[in-house]
Automatic annotation (TrEMBL), chain A:
Domain of life: Bacteria
Keyword ATP-binding attached: yes
Family per similarity comment: Belongs to the ABC transporter superfamily.
GO molecular function, one term: ATP hydrolysis activity
InterPro entries xref list: AAA+_ATPase, ABC_transporter-like_ATP-bd, ABC_transpr_TagH-like, Bact_Polysacc_Export_ATP-bd, P-loop_NTPase
SUPFAM superfamilies: P-loop containing nucleoside triphosphate hydrolases
Source organism: Candidatus Curtissbacteria bacterium RIFOXYA1_FULL_41_14
Protein name: ABC transporter domain-containing protein
UniProtKB keywords: ATP-binding, Nucleotide-binding, Transport
Coiled-coil features, chain-numbered ranges: none
GO cellular component, one term: membrane
Keyword field contains Transport: yes
TrEMBL record, chain B:
One GO cellular component, as annotated: ATP-binding cassette (ABC) transporter complex
Membrane topology: Multi-pass membrane protein
Signal peptide: none
Main location: membrane
Organism listed in the record: Candidatus Curtissbacteria bacterium RIFOXYA1_FULL_41_14
Family: Belongs to the ABC-2 integral membrane protein family.
Transmembrane intervals: 30-55, 67-85, 106-135, 141-167, 174-194, 231-249
Subcellular locations according to the entry: Cell inner membrane; Cell membrane
Keyword Transport recorded: yes
Keywords: Cell inner membrane, Cell membrane, Membrane, Transmembrane, Transmembrane helix, Transport
Protein name stated in the entry: Transport permease protein
Molecular functions per Gene Ontology: ABC-type transporter activity
Length: 252, 260
């Protein structure tokens, strides 16, 4: 039975280095003129940073996958491709179902708005209905433990409070696929534990989870399967404990 | 294209939420708050009346200066605020764009949504002014609706186009306000269309804002029906433009997260 929820087929993704930031207007116009004058096609090859090279993997429903690797190995790029924030240069990506992505803390929260307003705003950014948020509002607030600060503009929050608010909303959006990047580093111990138990509950509910973290203990406790990335290639794909062992043996 | 609209419909509540956010954030920590929606056109109207009317004695088609200018500023300011906020909507939300998936057009649309509210508030003042100057409320006022529809579609297409271009070429951030300035003088705001030489009139009316402002004045100040041919052309032009710039935006959208 082929019931894979997520599929990566020969996915290749690069970012241009020379223009990592954004294009410069004058430069572009200059190039266009040059091309018109010399009647040449664009010959300058831009320097590329290859984030993912022919990545193949499948994730079935109910699987919990941990992605590990050094900085710049392409972990976050995979998460961004799954959640359709960015698109591959070539290759195919399939991701079925409602995706809940928590890629960076604070993204989607607006500093001028209060905690309450932000719960609604962030919820709707994640694709939740207002009615849905109404229903879950109390659970979200309870989980975040921020009831006292609900009407404070969140620019006055600490970074830990930011993370708590953000994660709480994602945790209650009830997605089919939960995509979590390194985000637990900020919260305190008790919040981290609650996050982990929430994710474990999620896994037990036959939902799919993709988890990226440098906290190998957390990866081990949540995930069954692991993928080890290095320079955009999958080095190892298998049981999480074996993958972690390979990682520890080769990269530390 | 149909898929785009389906996706947009799915995120309609986000559009509403972002519009609310834009309104809230824009006036947060300002003492006068939403009064700025009125003060902006009102103060411009006063300055225009004083400088162009009293000092320079420009023609206003035998109408009191304040309402002559205000009738044009109403639609013009909707257009220009939509563009100055909307063109920056994507880059100002770079943290969202690079981290979370949602149809990106909701960002510029939300800016236009917030401007619609300002437009409505400023419109109420216009009604009060019509009462004050004892202008007749004719059945032709119904034509305000199609004129506003053209205005909104045209604004949306310019906003979609500029907001995508600004992501690619940041320099345009500084070009856009300049273009708005020039555009203002190319539209019949401080002068009536009758001042434009007859042989240039056709060219002049290719500017949809000229059609909108001129016909808005005809309908509200002169109780006349709009020039049907102009309205129809402007309507089709703005609809077609809307689809083209929407498509353009959707093509460029795929690379936003990488270059923003």
């Amino acid at each position: 039975m082929d019931s894979s929820l997520i599929e990566f087929n020969n996915v290749y993704k690069s970012y241009s280095i020379s223009r990592l930031k954004y294009k410069r207007f004058a430069e572009d116009i200059g190039q266009i003129f040059q091309r018109v004058l010399t009647r040449k096609k664009r010959t300058i090859q831009k320097e590329k940073f290859v984030a993912l090279k022919n990545v193949n993997f499948k994730v079935k429903q109910g699987e919990s996958l941990g992605i590990i690797g050094k900085n710049g190995a392409g972990k976050t790029t995979i998460l961004k491709l799954i959640s359709r924030v960015t698109y591959p240069d070539s290759g195919e990506i399939k991701a079925d179902g409602k995706i809940g992505a928590f890629i960076e803390l604070g993204a989607g929260l607006h500093p001028e708005l209060s905690g309450r307003e932000n719960i609604y705003l962030y919820g709707s950014i994640l694709g939740m209905r207002k009615k849905e948020i109404d229903e879950k509002f109390d659970d979200i607030v309870k989980f975040s433990e921020l009831r006292k600060f609900l009407d404070t503009p969140i620019k006055r929050y600490s970074s830990g409070m930011y993370a708590r608010l953000g994660f709480s909303v994602v945790a209650f959006m009830d997605p089919d696929i939960l995509v979590i990047d390194e985000v637990l580093a900020v919260g305190d111990k008790s919040f981290q534990e609650r996050c982990l138990s929430k994710m474990n509950k999620f896994v037990k509910g036959n939902k799919t989870i993709i988890f990226v973290s440098h906290n190998l203990e957390a990866v081990k406790s949540i995930c069954d399967r692991g993928i080890l990335l290095d320079h955009g290639k999958i080095i190892k794909d298998g049981r999480v404990s074996e993958v972690i062992n390979t990682y520890l043996a080769n990269y530390s | 294209m149909i898929n785009c609209f389906k996706e947009l419909y799915k995120f309609r509540e986000l559009l509403i939420a972002l519009t609310k956010r834009e309104i809230k954030v824009r006036y947060k920590q300002t003492t006068l708050g939403a009064a700025w929606a009125i003060l902006q056109p009102f103060s411009l109207m006063l300055i225009f009346s004083l400088v162009f009317g009293v000092f320079l004695g420009l023609e206003s088609q035998e109408l009191p200066y304040p309402i002559f200018y205000y009738s044009a500023l109403l639609t013009w300011l909707f257009f220009s605020t939509s563009i100055s906020f909307g063109s920056q909507a994507v880059i100002n939300n770079s943290n969202l764009v690079s981290k979370i998936y949602f149809p990106r057009e909701v960002l510029p649309f939300a800016s236009v949504g917030a401007a619609i509210l300002d437009f409505a508030v400023a419109g109420l003042i216009f009604i009060l002014m019509m009462l004050f100057y004892k202008l007749p409320f004719s059945p032709n006022l119904i034509f305000i609706l199609p004129i506003c529809a053209i205005l909104i579609f045209f604004t949306l297409s310019v906003v979609l186009f500029t907001s995508a271009l600004v992501v690619i070429w940041r320099d345009l951030k500084f070009v856009v306000p300049l273009i708005i300035q020039i555009w203002m003088f190319a539209s019949p705001i401080i002068y009536p269309v009758s001042k434009v030489p007859q042989n240039l009139r056709f060219l002049y009316m290719l500017n949809p804002m000229a059609v909108i402002i001129e016909n808005f004045r005809r309908v509200t100040l002169f109780a006349k029906p709009p020039v049907l041919s102009e309205i129809l052309i402007a309507f089709f032009v703005s609809i077609i433009l809307f689809f083209i710039s929407y498509k353009f935006f959707k093509i460029k959208e795929r690379s936003f997260a990488d270059i923003i």
